[in-house]
Amino acid sequence: MSAFHGFIFSKLHLIGSKSEGPSYFLQQFDYSEIPLEKQAQLWAEDPTLQKALGSKITVSGEIAGGKLRYDKIKPYTPGQHEEMEGHHLKVILQPEAEEIWLNKMPPFPSPKPFDLTLEVTWPYRSIWKGICPTSQIYDFFVEFEDKCIWQWSNGKSFCRH
Hints:
The protein is mainly β. The chain has one helix and nine strands.
């Protein structure tokens, strides 16, 4: 018996035939999909799978004939998925030069702008549910002698939830 983790969804199968009914799939965290073998007639809904639709689950079972034959289904608990351990959000902040000198007093004419590249990636499958209280997720600032002399968000407006 193996454990499979992912998001369960269904598609209408054999449309227009007497066997028209739902087919169930487990979308794993690596984007792969495994068809689930339902324990009901072709045209009928599987009561166990139907209750779990639209949620993350853990399926105990075996793959046979290209389908996952389930024995037990339970809600997914974060942290139980061994393959996801050690996976982190990848954040790279890269200035155009190794060293950038800033003067806290604005020179005249305006200082030369510089490029700052932020790359944020999550290269793994994720199905997220939650609430973001604001559209601002990150902010950048420059400090000089423990005082903020520049802040990216200064003067900007952000949506509130």
